[in-house]
Amino acid sequence: MALFHGWTVVAATHVALFVVFGIGYSFAAFFTAFQDEFNASRGDVALVFSIFGFLYFLIGAFTGVLSDRVGPRNVCVAGMVFLVLGLIATSKATSIELLYVAYGVGIGLGVGFVYVPSVSAVQHWFVKKRGLATGLTVAGIGAGTLLGPVIGAWLIGLVGWREAYQVFAVFALVVGGGAALLIVHHKV
Questions:
Q1: What is the model's pTM?
Q2: Domain 28-180 superfamily per CATH
Q3: Which among 26, 69, 21, 66 has a CA at the least distance from the CA of 156?
Q4: What is the H or E stretch that residue 4 is in?
Q5: For the chain, which residues make up each domain, given as ranges?
Q6: Which residues of 131-152 are buried (b: 16+ CB within 10 A; e: fewer)?
Q7: Following CA atoms 48, 51, 52, 57 in sequence, which dihedral angle do they give, to the nearest 10 degrees?
Q8: How far apart are CA 145 and CA 155, in angstroms?
Q9: What pLDDT sits at residue 188?
Q10: What tens digit of pLDDT does each residue of 83-140 get?
Q11: What is the rounded distance in angstroms from the CA atom of residue 140 to the CA atom of residue 10?
Q12: Taking phi first (over 0 means left), then psi (-120 to 50 degrees means alpha), and beta for anything else, what does residue 15 get?
């Protein structure tokens, strides 16, 4: 008996959400480095994360509609591209203001383009076991937010904060991009 393809979409979405939320919420590990690098106040640095959070929640309604029109794969791949570009730009930021755009907007768009469309794709695959499928899917968020800061702190200690974001960019491109390619709607 072949594996129901919906479970592949669940696994891919779990991984995609792990990547985007793990990277997005690794912010805490970089907080002090940002303060030191840009001689910024706690409030100035916190605003970076606030822009990120505001943006990814705000655009969820729009990316959901876009996903219905062009498919979740296309939207999620675009999200991974935004994420990778945001990470590269963050690694090269020379001011707190550039960090607002690179991290806040770039990474915020990345997460926003993946979050709602990927979870929605899972919903299209299941009638029975929809709760289980959704739970396994969004567990990627929890795993990412748990491990992202730990991995970020480890990378900062190993290679420095700028290079840590470059490593995250490669990870997002390869692992996140690969997962995004598998996120499709069920053909009814």
A1: 0.94
A2: MFS general substrate transporter like domains (1.20.1250.20)
A3: 26
A4: none
A5: 28-180
A6: eebbebbbebbebbbeebbebb
A7: 160
A8: 16
A9: 46
A10: 999 999 999 999 999 999 999 999 999 999 999 999 999 998 888 898 999 999 999 9
A11: 10
A12: alpha
